[in-house]
Amino acid sequence: MTQTRTAAVDDHLQRVKDFHDADASRYRADRYHRETCEGLAYVTRRQIVLDMADAKPGRVLDVGCGPGILTRDLLRKGHQVYSADLSIEMIREARHAARAAEGPGSPHFVVSDASRICVCGDRMDMVLSIGLMCYVKDHRGVLAEIRRVLRPGGVAVIQVNNIRWPKLYRALVPLYRRLKTFIGAKRYNGLDFDFNFSSRKKFLDDIVESGFQVLHIEHYDFRVPFVDVLLPRLSVTMGKLMFGGRHRRFCRCFSHGLLIKVRK
Ligand SMILES: C[S@@+](CC[C@H](N)C(=O)[O-])C[C@H]1O[C@@H](n2cnc3c(N)ncnc32)[C@H](O)[C@@H]1O
Which CATH number is 26's domain given? Predict the structure, then answer.
């Protein structure tokens, strides 16, 4: 039974890794441009994460670092950065990005699964987990690992999808992707693994039960599903307006992403 479960986890990790290895060289150009609704979500996410992050330079672990977009920002702010990712190609891109950062410290890179990160316990002042949880089957295992590496009183910024009705979400996502492929807006090659589409409530409960204190929550990604594919320009305008009003309850109903700042 345990062996079957381990094989299933290994198979999942391998598929996630293969997808990101193939995605590494195009990730930055593909995701981070303001003139699309998806791009706006990535750009604003980065902005909020940097606002939420500790200003005081310290030791920071960027887990699921991807091609090092935040790694580079953190280096520029003078942090001592440890960047971990499952994908060796993402780590290669992150190394490359870090070379252009010109921060005072040199970063450390680790190819590692987020549930077994090769850094000592009680060491980090801050951990960032951005865009990671939806790829992780056992998010409680990753939360435990984030808690292990943080020093007492250290903070983490954890990004999760803002899902209220997981069943509906799981039913609509394939249709949404098919529509995007059909009109030529995006291709989804290699996404042959299950995403973790747990509800926001489940994530928040698990964060608290893992021993974290929630300090602050920010909303971002105001895509109106299907409308953003069919009427992209209107969607970008709406997305910008809703981002501006994101502290209002009405706008929050439309957000797809949460950034949760917690303390150990
Ligand atoms: C969507 S990218 C996010 C990149 C970056 N954090 C950003 O903000 O742009 C997700 C990253 O998580 C990594 N990842 C997925 N599952 C992982 C795991 N179990 N352990 C470590 N990294 C993982 C992927 O390889 C990928 O680079």
Answer: 3.40.50.150
Torsion sign (Cα): 225, 231, 232, 234 = negative
Give the per-residue pLDDT at 177: 87
Rounded distance between C-alpha atoms, residue 223 and residue 210, angstroms: 30
Task: Give the residue ranges of the chain where pLDDT is below 50.
Answer: 1
Q: Compute, in angstroms, the gap from residue 251 CA to the centroid of ligand 1.
A: 28
The whole-angstrom separation of Cα 161 and Cα 54 is 23
- Find the domain containing 217 and state its range: 2-263
What's the 46 CA to ligand 1 centre distance in angstroms?
14
pTM for the whole thing?
0.94
- Whether 146 is in the pocket of ligand 1, judged by its Cβ within 6 Å, is no
- Measured on CA atoms in the order 16, 18, 19, 21, is the torsion positive or negative? positive
